[in-house]
Every structure is written in C-alpha cells, then in structure tokens.
Sequence to fold (348 residues):
Amino acid sequence: MIKRVGNYEVLHEVVEHNGILYLSGIVADDTTLGMADQTTQALTALTRLLEENGSGTDRILQVLIFITDMKLKPEMNRAWKAFFNNPDHLPARATLGISSLEEGELIEIVTTAAVR
Amino acid sequence: MIKRVGNYEVLHEVVEHNGILYLSGIVADDTTLGMADQTTQALTALTRLLEENGSGTDRILQVLIFITDMKLKPEMNRAWKAFFNNPDHLPARATLGISSLEEGELIEIVTTAAVR
Amino acid sequence: MIKRVGNYEVLHEVVEHNGILYLSGIVADDTTLGMADQTTQALTALTRLLEENGSGTDRILQVLIFITDMKLKPEMNRAWKAFFNNPDHLPARATLGISSLEEGELIEIVTTAAVR
Fold:
C-alpha cells in the first residue's frame, strides 16, 4: 500500500511504502534568512514531518542536500551538526552545488527515512 | 533478485528489486521542443516504462526533477499537473535547477516507484 | 534495524536498512586528477564500500552521477564502462551537470545498492 500525506498541488510532502518514507524537497519557510538559519528551519520542518509519519531524525537513511553556493557549505554543516546532537544517527549524505532553487532559497533537502 | 530491463550501453533503464523500480534519468525524445512538450514527452516515456514493468503513474514514490532553467518551472508544472489528472497519485517531488544536461535537454526526471 | 558504517563528522558512509545500502556521495581521493581517473578512483572506493558491507558492483540499483562539466561526460562514460566489465550488472543511472562540488572535484557518485 502507498500512503500519501500533504498534497501541495504538484506533489505530496510524504509518501510511505513498505516501511520507507519518501519525502519531497524541503526548504526554509523564510528565505530571507542566511544559510545557517535556512538549514535549521528546513531540518525543523523535516523533523516535524518525520515525527508526524512514524519516523524521526534517528531513522533517516539518506539525504541529498542541494545548495546554491558551495562557499556556504561550512555554515550549513555547522547548523547540520548542531541539529544532529547524536552523531550515531547521522544518515548517508551528499551535498551538491546547483545553479538555482526558487528565489532566495539557499538549501533544499531531499530525504529517505525508515518508519519505526 | 535484481531484474534489469533496457540495457543502453552505460545503464539499464529500469532496475527492479524487492518490489521497487529504480529508473534511470528520463528525458524527452525531441530536445528541440520547449519545456511543456519536453515534460510531457518525458512523462509519457516514464509512463510506458512503469506500465511495462508492472507499475504505473499511480505507483510513483519519489521524483527528482532536474531542469536547466528555473524560470521554466511554472511551465513544467503546468505540463506535470495536466499529466497527473488524479492529484491523489502525486508523488513526493523535488525540482532542482542545474547548470547543464545534454545539449537541448531542458528536463531530466529520476524516478523511484513501487510495483503493483 | 538501521546499521550505520563510517562516521565522518556530518554523515555515515553507508546506512543499511531492510537489505538496502544507502551510500553517501563518493568522490575521488585525489582531486588533482582528470575525469577518467577521478571516476575510476570513485568507483574503486564505491566497490570497496559495497564489498565491505555485503554487497558488490553487481548489486547496484541506482546511481546519481553529478559532474561539474558536461563536456567531460564522454570521458566519464569511458571510465565507467571499463569499470563495469559485465554490462548485465549496469544499474539505473542519471548524469547531472551541476555548478560546483568541493574544489577540484569533477564527479560525485550517489548510490543505492542491495545486499546479497
């Protein structure tokens, strides 16, 4: 069975199948913020979505991080590390520098996670 | 067991394992077309591959859309919405603006789907 | 159960869940090399990680290849084909041209694979 949550016109926020959550790309609510704050906002939104769907930040499998300026990767990483206070829970990850997201967006996070 | 379909020199079009289809990036056949038509062509090719492999557009879990010009995202979205006439079937999705695909290609779609 | 291997400060190299390996992005060790050699180095590192975790190059499901110069895709493909000497084992794949990786990096490979 496929369970879909959060229909936003062109996508669902979360799709669950066979114990795995497939998430849409997550960005910060406030795209006037800098990289550290956008990262924290996106991870906060991710945490909420995971917890609402029977998972959590300790159940993330793989994350693709797309950022529009690789020079801001260290700033992103600091916010990322502060967020994952338990390093045992860190997922597999790749960080890719891309040319553009929506205006103002510095980071978009694409996640696959396991339900509990 | 891993089942692979459609060997194209450096990849297989579809790889199936444990009820999940992992697809190669799909582009339009005719890369002289504009974004709307390239999107529709790529989604038509995706539909065919899904149906030939025991899945369908109602079984897509997650899609990564890479486009070379974020200004064309609204045009892509219109073609996307016209294609998914049942919004209940919309997958998780992320749209990323990247610097380049092969010449003429405006969009490449990477898909994970469940078999029926 | 989730098994994580290779903690590198912000990520784990490999995360295993339900028979699937989710890998972090893999790059060449020596980023002064050209595309062919970076590709071979990255695929060599990938092979080692897969074999250390109960999988192998014949068990790769899907690969996302991010390269910083699409003009080097043919060179990447030659190294890729030389590496996969058995074409029956080729995974699903997408190659995306992105604006930047870490300095000197020409290619980053993101992999999903099945354990044996």
